[in-house]
Backbone:
């Protein structure tokens, strides 16, 4: 079974940067798939943050992260990265890596609370202080 290993969370001041990494133990699927990130803040539902398609590199970003977050991948390493700049206190959450079969990044990122996604990594805490 494929394992997703997330890393890179931490504590940072507002305006700072962090880079999250998610490494899959193997290529999740033989055909097209999407990897990306969801997050869950205390008292809130899990939401899609950003995803990337392995087939064409297309990406999806939640409106709240556009212009600040960048997702990119290294398909040879089955790894995706989320570069988070200009962090805000409202970005504080547990970030979860996810992977599922799909043609478009949007199809995965917009799944309500990520329900039904095949693979999940353990969360990594991101805390942004004001």
Residues:
């Amino acid at each position: 079974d494929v394992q997703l290993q997330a890393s890179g969370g931490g504590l940072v001041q507002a305006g700072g940067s962090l880079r999250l990494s998610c490494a899959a133990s193997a290529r999740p699927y033989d055909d097209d798939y999407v990897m990306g990130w969801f997050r869950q803040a205390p008292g809130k539902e899990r939401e899609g943050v950003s995803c990337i398609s392995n087939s064409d590199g297309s990406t999806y970003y939640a409106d709240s992260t556009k212009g600040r977050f960048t997702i990119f991948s290294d398909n040879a390493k089955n790894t995706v990265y989320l570069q988070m700049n200009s962090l805000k206190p409202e970005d504080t959450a547990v970030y979860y890596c996810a992977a599922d079969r799909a043609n478009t990044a949007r199809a995965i990122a917009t799944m309500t609370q990520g329900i039904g996604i095949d693979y999940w990594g353990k969360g990594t805490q991101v805390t942004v202080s004001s």
User: Anything to note?
Assistant: The longest strand covers residues 93-101. The two ends are 40 Å apart (CA to CA).
